[in-house]
Here is the input.
Amino acid sequence: MVFGDEGCSLHYAVNIIGLYKTEGNIWYKSGMSKFVDEKYNAWNDGSIYTRVDRNKRKVDIYSLEDESRDKYASKFSFEADDYNYSAQEENGQYIITLKAKKGVKGIKEAKCFINKATGFPEGLRLKLFIISATIKITNFQYGNIPDDTFTYPQHLYADYTVIDHRQK
Here is the structure.
């Protein structure tokens, strides 16, 4: 449902141990995505990743294979076999817990909170070494997301500096 042909959108609010907070919106559909937060907008149309830094008035264009396009997400990979899983029901939610097996780097534990009645995600709690992060998910909707949502609107940023990293 989330990453399928129907697509979905959601609002998120991140809190990293009270030191860093941000929020934004994400849209996903069939390998494409759009991301909007307080500083950046980003589009992945299935072949090109374009990120706009609104504060610096800069556009960066990357191939999808280029991990440097996202300095945080590229630091983490997920291998299903690296975790032990458990599930429980509590307060109208399913809570899915993933605990890293010995020697796994990156995320040590993740708790996924899913609304029992709707099946929609409501949040995540992540532990990375001694740092923890909470991600609250609201306004989750699926379906009815047009493909042009994922097209970078170049005309809106015509006066921004453009750096095309695909040429490297």
